[in-house]
From TrEMBL, chain A:
Protein family (similarity comment): Belongs to the V-ATPase V0D/AC39 subunit family.
Quaternary structure and interacting proteins, as annotated: V-ATPase is a heteromultimeric enzyme made up of two complexes: the ATP-hydrolytic V1 complex and the proton translocation V0 complex.
Organism domain of life: Eukaryota
Transport in keyword set: yes
Keyword Chloroplast listed: no
Alphabetical keyword list: Hydrogen ion transport, Ion transport, Transport
Protein name (database record): V-type proton ATPase subunit
Organism: Rehmannia glutinosa (Chinese foxglove)
Pfam families per the UniProt record, alphabetical: vATP-synt_AC39
Known role: Subunit of the V0 complex of vacuolar(H+)-ATPase (V-ATPase), a multisubunit enzyme composed of a peripheral complex (V1) that hydrolyzes ATP and a membrane integral complex (V0) that translocates protons. V-ATPase is responsible for acidifying and maintaining the pH of intracellular compartments and in some cell types, is targeted to the plasma membrane, where it is responsible for acidifying the extracellular environment.
SUPFAM superfamilies to which the protein is assigned, alphabetical: V-type ATP synthase subunit C
UniProtKB/TrEMBL annotation, chain B:
Primary residence: membrane
Protein family: Belongs to the V-ATPase 116 kDa subunit family.
UniProt function note: Essential component of the vacuolar proton pump (V-ATPase), a multimeric enzyme that catalyzes the translocation of protons across the membranes. Required for assembly and activity of the V-ATPase.
Membrane topology: Multi-pass membrane protein
Coiled coil start-end: 100-127
Domain of life: Eukaryota
Name the record gives this protein: V-type proton ATPase subunit a
Organism: Rehmannia glutinosa (Chinese foxglove)
Keyword field contains Zinc: no
């Protein structure tokens, strides 16, 4: 019943929506980023972060800090929050929340498989995995020799299993195949998530389809750019695009035949929402495309908070937190330029002050 | 008027006079000076570095971080001590002051020592666990392998797994028997791996094995006898011993990989029984060795922890203190020469000498050649409000502060609240039986004040404990009111002599509602017990309590308006006296003051006049003859005069004040084209906040007028609604007495009517519970809340602005309160 979510939404979702909005107000603000930019050592960062929501996670770390510790602890906070929400959630919100983690699961699977291919230590790889994408038998991924085994042995137990239907081949695992597998899985995942949101209906469907369409389009562009000059055929490339989104289907046809960056640009500029992104780039510049997409995504995610009574806020919050942690990583990687931070509160409407 | 000014000042009536002081502290004595001031706790520093982020402050890098690090270490110790299950030793901390540096060194030492010990014991624990697991695997796996004991075939033993080949293979036997009873030879070697795995993972492990080997394996498992301590979480984990039989080299690799992935530890088990026994013996002896080592290590660690815990008792406080000092130092400004720190802050005037003394002591103790300069400055900012309260008055002050902190030097309603609050409560809760119960509770809390005060209480208990003196007063007053109402759990008692009434004839006891005649003097104190149960009980008590409520209400509201007079006088604001206090007084008293007068006259004269009628027709037809409702001579004329006064009072309080304010404003700025300069430019950049801006604000007539209009309307309507609001005193009192009557008569007396012990007991229990939970808890709470409302709204809105801010001195004593 579109437009009438307000009647019944709060019965099950009200508490968690309040929780997630509360979490969102704990995101770092522009002032925090300003201060973080002035930090010279990791201890400074720790001290600054201890005044934020991250405080309790960092306070017990002994002083010579490692960069990974900070990120680890920040991620831990996100995971704790996620788990809290998941345990409180009822259907269909709990399924929705689980969907959010599948992306990480795919990444983790690919990470482990690639790692074992290059003969890395499994434990070491496990540490690198995103904790949101962990599943029970993830360590056993290392045994698999080809796609079929991978599916039959391990992934059949996981929620990713249905996504595998398109990529069960008995080909051996190599870098190219793994990358194709990742994209096929992701495509299937996005489509499934999209269908799920459509099924939920109402404001959730509206907002999530917008966000997911953006995600799908961004992936399509990335696949195109990354596959330029590789062995991937046009048809194969075409197969990796998700079957929804703004670019579907005509944009995909155009992207599939692109041979260089400028053609991609030509194809994308026909779509008004992406025109603004591409118009920012000067010709031949592809590095900061990622950044431009991220900025656009953050803007859209922030807008998801403007409407009430839908699940998009959970998705948006998780994404924003991840982006924030990514910002912290950028911070210590030495990208000290302020303009590289994506600020979340630029579009934020202040609910903080109540009328007196 | 002179007389009022010459009265000695009431202690709590006005907040302490404050002064704004500047401190110029030489760098070398700064730390000590701030720490002495913290001990004194009478100076509130102002943050002079408000615009700076935490990193730009002076003392951030070395010291504050050091303190944070120290408190982290202390938390680590505490955690360790807690983990080890040691109780902090009960001796009080009577330690000589440890220096911060010394503490830091000690902490570092202890931490190092402890971490080393922990790693050692962890290693040992690891080895111990491994051996223990090995032992279990040997025992259990041995059982699986028992059938093959008879057969001693060729076997190869490797380091981490045992490969065991059967040469004789019985072709008729099932797969299970193939492995268990290797009778005849077989070309393909059947091998096994034994190990141990967490019980929770067992099922998945088995499934994974099954899938990988496509079912060509046999999985045997048995639960381990003992639980094993997980070194990471220190918890006991249940484990399962397994033996996997499979065939082929490829499968072996896979199985090993799966074992690794699932965190299962594999141990070689020799197939040969004698060998197995031998290894078991070895393992057992090493186990017992390790056990003693572990125990010794644990004991060593415990003693170390105990000594650390004892030594560092004052540590947390010291660290906190040090951190607070640096936080304060960060609020100070460096002067131009960078040799002195400049601080500003508020302190009460009486504390001046004490502060100076402390500063002198600091200069002396730190061997500084330059003294600390302490001088008073002017400030346009409103000073903070500081009331010196004690155990008793604190709770009442809290009640008032919960509504709003008094403006600096404003009349403090807490002074009156001390008496009026418990009294109004008791009017609603008048029952001396219940009052005694409350009194016992309050006395219990007060008697154990010392002990309860030092320990951590739950939030509810904390609230109760904080209000123990309020509770005491409330209970005393409710005993008093209960005596007046003559109620003891709703039972009347003949305490002050016998009843004034007696029966006209002997049948009276049955029909006690009729036939009572008065034959003695009036009952000397409170309500005559004979009223209880009579037919006219309710009308009588209702009329009494209703009128009483109005009297109390009018009295309290008058007190409120009077306080506004004292406020205006104190701040020498004659405008407020003339155009606010006087008309308000006239308005309230010409209507409700008159009503109170009528009530008293009616009580004294015993007249049967209808007061509703009098009051209503005073407005509807003021010139009509009162008839039988006339109470005294000249009442009609008086009413007309009062009505006229009330009518005049309304425009009086509405119009003059804004117009006079406008005239004053235009006079002040007449002929001036420029605004007034600030007193000094120095403040301008220091105080960008509202205090200064509001001073130079333009006079906005319409705003002032609307404000005044709202105020007047509020007062006029409020006079009626507030008086009506005081009727809650009657309503709650009625509810309380009816409720307790119901419990007494319908539960206790009903149960007592039966001649059955059990029914009586049940009745008594129900009565006791109802009294305790409904009357003593719920009713107390509701009466408390209503009394609170009467004070906050009906009383305080007459005079109290409550827009000040609290004085928060820098004090170490406050730190300990916040701790934990």
């Amino acid at each position: 019943m579109y437009g009438f979510e307000a009647l019944t939404f709060n019965i099950h979702g009200g508490y968690l929506e309040a929780i997630v909005r509360g979490y969102r107000s704990g995101l770092l603000t522009a002032a925090d980023y300003n201060n973080l930019c002035q930090c010279e050592t990791l201890d400074d960062i720790k001290m600054h972060l201890s005044a934020t929501e991250y405080g309790s996670y960092l306070q017990n770390e002994p002083s010579p800090l490692h960069t990974t510790t900070i990120v680890e602890k920040c991620t831990l906070k996100l995971v704790d929050e996620y788990k809290h929400m998941l345990t409180q959630a009822t259907e269909p919100l709990s399924t929705f929340l689980e969907y959010i983690t599948y992306g990480h699961m795919i990444d983790n699977v690919v990470l482990i498989v690639t790692g074992t291919l290059h003969e890395r230590d499994v434990q070491e790889l496990l540490e690198k995995c995103h904790p949101l994408g962990m599943f029970d038998s993830i360590a056993t991924l290392a045994i698999a020799q080809n796609m079929r085994e991978l599916y039959r042995l391990v992934l059949v137990d996981t929620p990713l299993a249905p996504y595998f239907s398109e990529c069960i081949t008995s080909e051996d695992l190599d870098d190219m195949n793994i990358e194709i597998m990742r994209n096929t899985l992701y495509k299937a995942y996005l489509e499934d998530f999209y269908r799920f949101c459509q099924k939920l209906g109402g404001a959730t469907a509206e907002i999530m389809s917008d966000l997911l369409a953006f995600e799908a389009d961004r992936r399509a562009v990335n696949i195109t750019i990354n596959s330029i000059g590789t062995e991937l055929t046009r048809d194969d490339r075409r197969k990796l695009y998700s079957n929804f989104g703004l670019l579907y289907p005509y944009g995909h046809e155009e992207l599939a035949v692109c041979e260089d960056m400028d053609q991609v640009r030509g194809a994308m500029e026909k779509y008004p929402p992406y025109q603004s992104i591409f118009s920012k780039l000067s010709y031949g510049e592809s590095q900061i495309l990622d950044k431009a997409f991220y900025e656009e995504e953050v803007k859209r995610l922030c807008l998801a908070f403007e409407q009430q009574f839908h699940y998009g806020v959970f998705f948006a919050y998780m994404r924003l937190r991840e982006q924030e942690i990514r910002n912290l990583i950028l911070k210590y990687l030495g990208n000290l330029k302020l303009d590289f931070y994506f600020e979340f509160d630029s579009t934020r409407i202040d609910f903080g002050e109540e009328p007196q | 008027m002179e007389y009022i000014d010459n009265l000695p000042s009431m202690d709590l009536m006005r907040s302490e006079k404050m002064m704004f002081a500047q401190l110029i502290i030489p760098v070398e004595s700064a730390h000590r000076a701030v720490s002495y001031l913290g001990e004194l706790g009478l100076l509130q520093f102002r943050d002079l570095n408000d615009d700076k982020s935490p990193f730009q402050r002076t003392f951030v890098n070395q010291q504050v971080k050091r303190c944070a690090e120290m408190s982290r270490k202390l938390r680590f110790f505490k955690d360790q001590i807690h983990k080890a299950g040691l109780m902090p030793s009960p001796h009080p901390a009577s330690q000589p002051d440890i220096d911060l540096e010394e503490l830091e060194i000690r902490l570092a030492e202890h931490e190092h020592e402890l971490i080393e010990m922990n790693t050692n014991s962890e290693k040992l624990q690891q080895t111990y666990n491994e051996l223990l697991e090995f032992k279990m695997v040997l025992q259990k796996a041995g059982d699986f392998l028992v059938p093959s004991r008879s057969h001693s075939a060729a076997q190869e033993t490797e380091l981490d797994e045992n490969v065991y080949t059967n040469n004789d293979y019985a072709d008729s036997a099932s797969l299970l028997e193939q492995e268990m009873q290797p009778g005849s030879s077989n070309e393909s070697g059947v091998k096994f791996i034994s190990g141990i795995i967490c019980k929770s993972k067992g099922l998945r492990f088995e499934r994974m094995l099954f899938r990988t080997t496509r079912g060509n394996m046999l999985f045997n498992q048995a639960p381990a006898d003992d639980q094993i301590v997980d070194p990471a979480s220190n918890e006991m984990v249940e484990k399962t011993v397994f033996v996997v039989f499979f065939s082929g080299e490829q499968a072996r690799k896979k199985v090993l990989k799966i074992c690794e992935a699932f965190g299962a530890s594999c141990y070689p088990v020799p197939e040969d029984a004698t060998k197995r026994r031998q290894i078991t013996r070895e393992v057992l002896s090493r186990l017992s060795e390790l056990e003693t080592t572990l125990e010794a290590g644990l004991r060593h660690r415990d003693t170390a922890l105990t000594s650390i815990g004892f030594q560092l008792r004052s540590g947390p406080f010291l660290g906190e203190k040090e951190k607070a000092i640096y936080d304060m130092l960060n609020m100070l400004n460096f002067d131009v020469t960078k040799k002195c720190l400049v601080g500003e802050g508020w302190c009460p005037i009486f504390a001046k000498t004490k502060i100076q003394e402390a500063l002198q002591r600091a200069t002396f103790d730190s061997n500084s050649q330059v003294g600390i300069i302490f001088h008073v400055m002017d400030s346009v900012e409103l000073p903070p409000t500081y009331f010196r309260t004690n155990h008793f008055t604190n709770a009442y002050q809290e009640i008032v502060d919960a509504y709003g902190v008094a403006k600096y030097q404003e009349a403090n309603p807490a002074v009156y609240t001390i008496v009026t609050f418990p009294f109004l409560f008791a009017v609603m809760f008048g029952d001396w039986g219940h009052g005694i119960c409350l009194l016992l509770g309050a006395l219990f809390l007060i008697a154990r004040e010392k002990r309860l005060g030092s320990q951590k209480l739950g939030s509810f208990m904390e609230m109760l404990f904080g209000g123990r003196y309020v509770l005491l007063m409330m209970s005393l007053f409710s005993i008093y009111c209960g005596l007046i109402y003559n109620e003891f759990f709703s039972v009347p008692f003949h305490i002050f002599g016998s009843s004034a009434y007696k029966c006209r004839d002997a049948t009276c006891s049955d029909a006690r509602s009729v036939g009572l005649i008065k034959d003695r003097d009036t009952y000397p104190f409170g309500v005559d017990p004979s009223w209880r149960g009579s037919r006219s009980e309710l009308p009588f008590l209702n009329s009494l309590k209703m009128k009483m409520s109005i009297l109390f209400g009018v009295a309290q509201m008058n007190l409120g308006i009077l306080l506004s007079y004292f406020n205006a006088r104190y701040f020498s604001n004659s405008l407020d006296i003339r155009y606010q206090f006087v008309p308000q007084m006239i308005f309230l008293n010409s209507l409700f003051g008159y009503l109170s007068l009528l009530i008293i006259i009616k009580w004294c004269s015993g007249s049967k006049a209808d007061l509703y009628h009098v009051m209503i027709y005073m407005f509807l037809s003021p010139f009509e003859d009162l008839g039988e409702n006339k109470l005294f001579w000249g009442q009609g004329v008086l009413q007309v005069i009062l009505l006229l006064l009330a009518l005049i009072a309304v425009p009086w309080m509405l119009f003059p004040k804004p117009f006079i304010l406008r005239r004053l404003h235009t006079e002040r700025f007449q002929g001036r084209t420029y605004g007034i300069l600030g007193t000094s430019d120095m403040y301008n950049d220091e105080e960008p906040d509202s205090a200064r801006q509001s001073h130079n604000e333009d006079f906005n007539f319409s705003e002032v007028f609307v404000h005044q209009m709202i105020h007047s309307i509020e007062f006029v309507l409020g006079a009626v609604s507030n008086t009506a609001s005081y009727l809650r005193l009657w309503a709650l009192s009625l509810a309380h007495s009816e409720l307790s009557t119901v419990f007494y008569e319908k539960v206790l007396l009903l149960a007592w009517g039966y001649d059955n012990f059990i029914i009586r007991l049940v009745g008594l229990a129900v009565f006791a519970f109802a009294t305790a939970f409904i009357l003593l808890m719920m009713e107390t709470l509701s009466a408390f809340l209503h009394a609170l409302r009467l004070h906050w709204v009906e009383f305080q809105n007459k005079f109290y602005s409550g827009d000040g801010y609290k004085f928060r001195p820098f004090s170490f004593a406050a730190l300990t309160d916040d701790d934990e």
